[in-house]
Amino acid sequence: MADTESQTDRETATDGSAEFRRAPLGEIEPARSRHMWTRSAVHATATDGLVVAGQWDGTVTAYDVDVLNGDAPESDSDPDPRWTVDHPDHAVGIASLGAGTGEGDGSIVVAGRGDRGTITAYDAVTGDRRWRYDTADDVGDPVKDTVFYLPYVVALETSVDADGTDRLYAAARRYERDGETRRWDSTVYSFDPDGEVRWRYETDASPIALDLAADGERLAVGYNRCLGDHDVSLVVLDTDTGELTWTWDPGTEGDRRVGDVSFDGETIAVASHGDKRGYLLGSGGAERWRVDLAVETEIDGERLYAYPNHVHAGDGRVAFVTGNTYAVESRETESRHPNEHRIAAFDADGEPLWDDPVRGFVHGLAADGERLVAPCAQNFRVRDPETHAVRWFDLGSGAGGVERVDGIATAASLAGDVVTAVEEPVRYHDDDETRGEYALRVGTLAETSSAAPIERR
After folding, report:
1. In a 3-state reduction of DSSP, which class is residue 107?
2. How many domains are there within the chain?
3. Are 223 and 272 in contact (CB under 8 A)?
4. pLDDT tens column, 45-97
5. Which tens digits make up the pLDDT trace of 326-348?
6. In a domain, 117, yes or no
7. 9 lies in a domain?
8. Under 8 Å CB-to-CB from 451, ≥6 apart: which residues?
9. Are 375 and 364 in contact (CB under 8 A)?
10. Which of 276, 206, 219 is nearest to 247 (CA)?
11. Is 106 inside any structural domain?
12. Domain harbouring 437, CATH code
C-alpha cells in the first residue's frame, strides 16, 4: 500500500479534468469517525439531463444538469431546482423509470427508509406523485423507533421488456430483535409502470443488492445476512414470473454472506462477505474463478480482514471494492489489513488487471460503461481528511482522477460524462472541527483511455 505522500502525488499527476459545482442541501447532523448508515441518495438520468438528490429529512430535489453545469463551477448564487417534494420517509435511493424525455413519460422513483418503507414514483417533469407503495405492508412495521429497525428499501433496478414495457424491481427488508433472537423479513418486488405489483419473492433473510441481466430476463438478489430458513446468499429470479431459477452460496459458516452482485452477460460477479473473496459465476452458479480480496491475514498477532462491499462487472472485466479493517477477535485493532479500502480489477480469467487505494469507506459504487465512480468517506482508523473525495476509474486500465471534498462523499451517480455526488459534513470524535457541508456536487468528466494504465507504486 502506498504511503499518503506518494498516493497524493500520484493522484495529482493523474487527475482527470473535471469542474464541479455545488448546490446546498440544507442541514444534517455531521457524521462521526465511524462511517454512518446510508443517509442520502443521488441519481443522474441518462436521457433528459436531470439530477435528483434525496435527503435524510425526506426532501427530494430535481435539478436540470444545464443549470448545475453553468459557466462558473462555483457560482455565488444557488441553482434553482426544477422541482422539490417531501418523500414520506428518509429518501435513500433513487432510480429512473421510463424514457424520461421531458414529455411526461418518465418517472423518478424514490426508495425510503422509515415507518412505512415507502416507494414512490414522481413525474420527472413536474414532481407530481404518480403512485406510492408501502413495503411495511409486507415486511412489517418497526418494533422500535431506531434507524436499524425501520423498514428499508435497499435497492432499485429498472429495465425495459422486449415489448417496450418499463419494469421496476425493488428489495425491502426489516430487522427486529427479541433478546438473543434476531430476525429479518424481506420482499423482492416486480412493479408495472403504474405501481401494480406483478410478483413478490419473500424470505427471512436480509437482501443487500439487486442487479439485472442486460436482456432483462434475470434478476440477481444478493443476501447479506441469513439467520433463518433462507440459507443461500445469491438467488437468480426469472423477471417475468419471479420464480427461482438457481442459487449459490460460498459455503462459509456464520450469517454473513455477500456484499454485492453484478451481471456481465451470462456470468455474475459476487463480492463475498463470507470468505472475503471475489467470485465469477457461470450459468447455474458454476464457479469460473475466485480471488482473495481481503481474506484473514495475521499481522502483529492479530487476524485481520476487510469486507468486499462492492462489485461491478462488464465486458469481461470485474472490479471489487473493499471496506474497513476488522479483527477476528475484536473490532478494535491498531493494525490495518493491507487490502482495506482498495479497488482491484480482474480480467475474464481472474487475472489481475490493476488495483488502487480508495483510501476511505465507499458507500456505493456508480458505473456507466467503462467508467466507475467511488464516493469515498472517512477512514475511521486513520483519520485523514485527504481520504474525503470522489474518485473515478476506467474499468480496463484504472486511469482516472479525483475531486476532493472537505466533508465526506457518501453517494454518487454517473450518466455519460456527468458525475454527481453528495457531500455530508463530518466531525471526528477526537477533533472539534466540522468539515464540509451538506451539498450536491455535479461535474463533467474528461475522457480517459483504456489503453494507458496509470502508474503504480
Report:
1. strand
2. 1
3. no
4. 877 789 999 999 999 999 998 887 754 445 557 889 999 999 999 999 999 99
5. 999 887 888 999 999 999 999 99
6. yes
7. no
8. 397
9. yes
10. 219
11. yes
12. 2.130.10.10
